[in-house]
Structures are given as C-alpha cells and as structure tokens.
C-alpha cells in the first residue's frame, strides 16, 4: 500500500539511510526490515559499494524483495562522498526505481560504510540510522562522530554477541543516549524478535509522520574534514 497522494501529502517514498562501519550489520538490518514489513509497506533498497554490487547481491539472494526493487550504486571512489557530497547517482537510482516499479512507501539506502563518521545528506534521505555493533567494543559510542551523536536512530547491533565480547549493552546504550542528548538508541539483534519489533515500530511511526507531512529531515552534520593518503609511485 503506497501512501495516499493528497494536496499536502508527499508523493514519494520515505527515504531512510542506513550508515555505519563495514560489518556492523547494515545489509542484514535492511533484509530484516524487508522481511518483517514487506506486507505493510512497498519497499525498495539502494546499496552503495565502491567497486562491486555485493550488498545488492546479498539482498537479492536473501529473497526478501524482487530484484527490480534492489539497485546498486557503484561509487568508484570514497563511498561516503556519494551519500553526502555528490548524491546524484543515488538520487537517480531512487527515482529510476520508483518510476520502474511504481509508487513505494519506503526506500532504504545503505551506505558504503567505509567510515565511522559517514553521514547522509538530508538532500538524499529523510532520516538516517547509524549502526554500530557490540563487537566493535563499548568505547566506540564515546569516541563518537556526527552519525553516532545525531542520526535519527542509533542501533547498537548484534547484542546477542555481547557476552562473548565482554561488552555491557546497557552501559553502551546509556552512553549512546547521553552522547545523543536523549535521542533514541536501540539495542538490536536479528536473533531477538522483540528488538526487531522495536525497530519496525520506529520505522512505522516515521513512515506515518512522513506520509502525513509531519516529519522534517535534520542534518546530523558533515563528517570531519579529512584527507586521503597520497599514493606514492615507487
Ligand atoms: N550474531 C549476529 N550477527 C549478525 C547480526 N546481524 C548481522 N550479523 C552478521 O554480521 C556480519 C556482517 O553483516 P552485514 O549485514 O553484511 O554487515 P554490513 O557490512 O554492515 O552490511 C554477517 O556475518 C552477518 O551475518 C546479529 O544481529 N547478530
Ligand atoms: Mg552491507
């Protein structure tokens, strides 16, 4: 069911960015959302990889959405640039998909995830989730970055692994909430259905607010200025 189109209703899908370092579980989170919400929302996915379409292939293989609803953007260089500074390729991918498969309610955009500080441009997504995992250690929340501090939702993922990596999830969540001025932090595991339900409830609320014109995108802020190492000819 696509959102109804009225005078004051946005016509396009809610665009939700999913950022965070490689391996924290972004593709798995997206597959889980699709599996749990495909009956109530029309969903599409855009992935960003540097040179491959691996994330898109993982999602196609998981069988949660038809192939036409999963698009891969191959960024060629810094993947964080394609979600923040030059968002053209991503905007084209989202718009082409909506044109090809019909109106959607939700488009999930996965970042290339090379960078702890990567954030999406508010010109590309309406809201963003930043994903960390407990295996990265409890300190990473305190070390921070704009995504951790100001994304719409911080997901502390793979909490099922916490006992094996000596991380205190309650403490990590409390430190996250403190670093975020009380903005939401979700302890998540795809193996814990009650946490998946919380994630889906958060997305459902956001999609409702977006459809009703009540949601205003906020910018977490640009990543810290950085240089790439110069490659020296030898
Ligand atoms: N134990 C556990 N493993 C997970 C969970 N979510 C994802 N993973 C695993 O973490 C690894 C990286 O996941 P992936 O979604 O590819 O991460 P991405 O690089 O951020 O997209 C894979 O081996 C997943 O099976 C979870 O909730 N619990
Ligand atoms: Mg991925």
UniProtKB/TrEMBL annotation:
GO BP annotations listed: urea catabolic process
This protein's UniProt keywords: Chaperone, Cytoplasm, GTP-binding, Nickel insertion, Nucleotide-binding
Cellular localisation: Cytoplasm
UniProt-listed SUPFAM superfamilies: P-loop containing nucleoside triphosphate hydrolases (SSF52540)
The UniProt record lists the keyword Lipid metabolism: no
Pfam families, sorted: cobW
GO CC annotation, single: cytoplasm
Entry-linked InterPro entries: CobW/HypB/UreG_nucleotide-bd, P-loop_NTPase, UreG
Chain positions recorded as GTP binding sites: 20-27
Keyword Cell membrane appears in the UniProt entry: no
One GO MF term attached to the UniProt entry: nickel cation binding
Region named Disordered: 211-234
Biased composition (Basic residues): 224-234
Residue ranges of every copy of the CobW/HypB/UreG nucleotide-binding domain listed in the record: 17-185
Described function: Facilitates the functional incorporation of the urease nickel metallocenter. This process requires GTP hydrolysis, probably effectuated by UreG.
Similarity section: Belongs to the SIMIBI class G3E GTPase family. UreG subfamily.
Subunit structure: Homodimer. UreD, UreF and UreG form a complex that acts as a GTP-hydrolysis-dependent molecular chaperone, activating the urease apoprotein by helping to assemble the nickel containing metallocenter of UreC. The UreE protein probably delivers the nickel.
Protein name: Urease accessory protein UreG
Organism: Streptomyces diacarni
């Amino acid at each position: 069911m696509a959102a109804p189109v009225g005078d004051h209703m946005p016509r396009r899908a809610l665009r939700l960015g999913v950022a965070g370092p490689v391996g924290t579980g972004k593709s798995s989170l997206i597959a889980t959302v699709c599996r749990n919400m495909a009956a109530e929302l029309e969903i599409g996915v855009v992935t960003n990889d540097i040179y491959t379409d691996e994330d898109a292939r993982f999602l196609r293989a998981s069988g949660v959405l038809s192939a036409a609803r999963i698009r891969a953007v191959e960024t060629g260089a810094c993947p964080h640039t394609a979600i923040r500074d030059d968002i053209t390729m991503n905007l084209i991918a989202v718009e082409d998909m909506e044109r090809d498969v019909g109106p959607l309610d939700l488009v999930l955009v996965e970042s290339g995830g090379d960078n702890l500080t990567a954030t999406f441009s508010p010109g590309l997504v309406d809201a963003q989730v930043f994903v960390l995992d407990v295996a990265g250690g409890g300190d990473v929340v305190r070390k921070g970055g704009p995504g951790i501090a100001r994304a719409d939702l911080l997901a502390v993922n793979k909490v099922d692994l916490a006992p094996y990596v000596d991380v205190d999830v309650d403490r990590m969540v409390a430190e996250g909430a403190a670093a975020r001025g009380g903005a939401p932090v979700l302890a998540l595991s795809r193996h814990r259905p009650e946490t998946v339900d919380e994630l889906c409830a958060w997305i459902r609320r956001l999609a409702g607010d977006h459809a009703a014109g009540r949601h205003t995108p906020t910018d977490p802020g640009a990543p810290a200025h950085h240089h790439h190492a110069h490659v020296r000819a030898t």
